[in-house]
Amino acid sequence: MAWIYWVLFTGTWPICGACTMLTLWKLYLGRMTRRMWFRSTLYGAMGVVTALAGAFLKFLIPAGLATRIGADSVGNILGILAASMLTVTTFSLSTMVSAYGSASNSATPRAARLLIEDSRAQGALATFIGAFLFSIVGLIALSTGLYGDSGRLVLFGATVGIIVIITITLLRAIEQFSRFGRLGETIDLVERATLAAMKRRAADPLLGGAPPQPASATAMRLSDQRIAYVEHIDMARLEALAMEKTLRIHLLCQVGTFASPDRPLMEVEGEVSEETRGLLLATLSCSDARAIDDDPRYGLVILSEVGQRAMSASINDPGTCIDVIGTCVRLLHRWAELRQDATHAEVRYPHVHVAPLQASDLFDDVFTPIARDAAGSLEVNIRLQKGFAALQLAPDPDIAREARRHAQRAMARALERLTFEPDREALLASAVVPTPQPNAPTAAGR
Q1: Would you call 144 helix, strand, or coil by DSSP?
Q2: Between the CA of residue 85 and those of 44, 49, 132, 408, what are the distances in Å?
Q3: What 8-state DSSP symbol labels residue 348?
C-alpha cells in the first residue's frame, strides 16, 4: 500500500514500478476479456447461478402456485435442452475452427486472430455453453430435491427465459456462421479493427507526449536486448522517471516497432545510470507478435498481405486485390479526416517527446507490396491510380503528397511489366500525375 500513500501525498507516481504494473494489468485484462475461454467461462458461471437461483428464491413464491402453472414438467424440458445445447455447441465450435482455417488459407494467418477474438461469435458459443450448464445443474438440483414446489416455479421461469435467449442467438448465429471466415467478411473485420485503432491513435496522436524535437549531441541512445515487437509504451512511467531523474526522453519507436539490440528505442538527455537505463527500457512492453489494438499500421499490413496473396500465381484473384485497395483508400482517407479533427493534442507528459505516425510509413505498408506484386495486372494498376487520385483530395497534405509519390512509383513499375501497347496507353490515361513513358521493351528485351 506504500505506493498509494506516495501518490496521495506527492501527486506523482513512485519509481517502484506500481504504475507500470497497473498499466500492464489494464493492458492484459483487456486482452484477456477477448479470449474465447473468458466469455464462455463467464456465461457458464451465469448459467450455474441462474440454475441455482430457484433454491434461494423459492421462499418468495406462494405455496401451490407451481402446481397450478405446471412447473413439474421443467425436468423434461431441461433434459431436452441439455442434449440439444451439447450438440449445438459442438457444431458451432467445429464451424468456428473451420472458419479460422479458411481465413488463414484464403486471406492471411494474421487475420485469424481477429476472428478468434470476434465478440459476436464468442457470444453465440458462450450462450450455448451457458445454457448447457444451466440445464445440467438444474437437472442435478432437481434430482436432489433442492428446489421444492416453489423453487421449481422459479426454475421453470428461468428456463423459459433461457429458451427465448437461445432462440434469438440461434437466429443471429445462422446469419453470422454463414459468412464467418469468408474472405469478404474477413476483410471487413480487419477494416473495422484498423479503423478503431486509427480513431484511438488520432485522438491521442503523440500518446500524451510532447511534439518531437532533435535531441542534443550528448543524448544517450538506448537499445534493448530483447528481440520482439513493442506492444505498449508506458508514457506515465516514462514521465515519472524523467521528473525523478531530471531527464528528457525522445522516443525513437512506436507501438509495433521491431526491437533488437542494434536498434535504438529512445534517446535520453541527462545522466543515465545502469539502473536508470533498465527502468527506462522496462517501460516498453514487448511481445512476439503484433496486435492491431494500438497499432493501426499492422492492420494495413494485414490488408496488404491479403491483396498480395490474391495476386499470387496460384490464386490470381484481381477482384480481391481491388477490394483491398478500395478498403485501404477508405481507411487512409478516414485517417486524414481524423488527424484534421484532432489538431490540438493534449500534452500530459511534457518531458517525453514522441513522433506521430508518418503518412509515408502508412503508404509503404500498403501500396508498395501491392504495386510490386500486381505490377503486371492492368485492372489492379488502374484501380491503384484511381485510389491515389481519391487520396490526393484528402484534407491532410502529407496524405496527398504520398499519394502522388506512390502513384508515380506504381506507374513506373507497371509500365516496365506491361508489354502490350494498348494496355500501357490505358494505364497512362488513368495516371494521377504525368508520368514519363519509358521506352517500350524491344523484342530482345522481352
Answers
A1: coil
A2: 12, 18, 5, 58
A3: S
Whether residue 188 is contained in a domain is answered as no
| Domain final position from 287, 316, 331 | 287
Interatomic CA distance for residues 18 and 7, integer angstroms: 10
Cα–chain-centroid distance for residue 319? 25
List the domain range (segments joined by +) for residue 342. 296-429
Cα(118)–Cα(103) distance, rounded to whole angstroms? 13
Q: What is the number of domains present in the chain?
A: 4
Summarised one tens digit per residue, pLDDT across range 31-88 is 788 788 888 899 999 999 988 887 776 666 665 555 555 556 778 888 899 999 999 9
Contact criterion met (CB below 8 Å) for 115 and 292? no
Distance CA 97, CA 101 (A): 6
Q: With contact defined as beta carbons under 8 Å apart, do 419 and 392 qualify?
A: no
Q: Is residue 316 part of a domain?
A: yes
Same domain for 282 and 260? yes
**What CATH number should be reported for the domain holding residue 263?**
3.90.1170.30
- Looking at residue 430, its amino acid is S
Q: Is 309 a member of any domain?
A: yes
Cβ-contact 159, 78 below 8 angstroms = yes
pLDDT in tens, 253-302: 999 999 999 999 999 999 999 999 999 999 998 989 898 988 999 999 99
